[in-house]
Amino acid sequence: MVEIKDGKKILTTPISDNDLRDIHIGDIIYLNGSLTTCRDVAHRRLVEEQRPLPVNVRDSAIIHAGPIIRSLGNDKFEMVSVGPTTSMRMEKFEKEFIEQTGVKIIIGKGGMGHNTEYACKNFKCLHCVIPAGNAVVAAVAVEEIICAQWQDLGMPETLWNCRVKEFGPLIVSIDTYGRNYFEEQKIVYNRRKETALEKISKNVKFIK
Predict the structure, then answer these.
(1) Which whole-number Å values give the CA distances from 190 to 25, 34, 159, 160, in the listed order?
(2) Cα(129)–Cα(44) distance, integer angstroms
């Protein structure tokens, strides 16, 4: 479901293809519902070792993050900090991950490449980035840690399945049309760079 609340565009899991139709690169969205931390080793287990995820992320969201967790005892946990990991580390796995799991929102840091573009377009998924430096603030949006799976991997790689409320802001970097915000902006930045260098060169041509 998608709704506008106090000027915020909020997606609530489970998320349908139709919910993502009018969301484009550069848009800012927020997330309600199910969010699971999922990093390198979990991707590798699914794709290379063909081990099904012990958390159902279909029509839900994952975040490339190694959080800091506080144990409350009796299998209860509290999110202390949840900062994103560089998403490009998962690029080699993401196409198969999206296809096999049916995940609809992937959150991370930095851009992703052609594999993820293809998967987002063909399997209707978004890749989003969350602003850096907000790990503690982001943890406040985690209402509850529902369960922890694959704890043998250690805290950063465990699948922490959470319930979140207005988790964000999330900037859409790849949309369901396969457009890639980071790649498109590189063209703009390079064009500006050439113009800036030309101006600078005129003023410092006396420097050898």
Answers:
(1) 19, 38, 39, 39
(2) 22
| pLDDT tens profile 27-39 | 999 999 999 999 9
Q: Is 33 helix (H, G, I), strand (E, B) or coil?
A: strand
Which residues in 64-87 are b (16+ Cβ under 10 Å) and which e? bbbbbbeeeeeeebebebbbbbeb
Which of 160, 163, 187 is CA-nearest to residue 64? Answer: 160
Mean pLDDT of the chain: 94
Phi, psi for residue 80 in degrees, rounded to 5:
-95, -45
> Could you list the active site residues?
43
Identity of the residue numbered 108: G
DSSP for 104-143? -EEEEBS---HHHHHHHHHHT-EEEE--TT-HHHHHHTEE
Any idea which fold 2-182 has?
A: fumarase (3.20.130)
Q: What is the pTM of this model?
A: 0.90
Closest CA to 27 of 126, 113, 98: 126
What residue spans define the domains of the chain? 2-182
Omega within 30 of 0 (cis) for the link into 14: yes
Q: Assess contact for 120 and 182: CB atoms under 8 A.
A: no
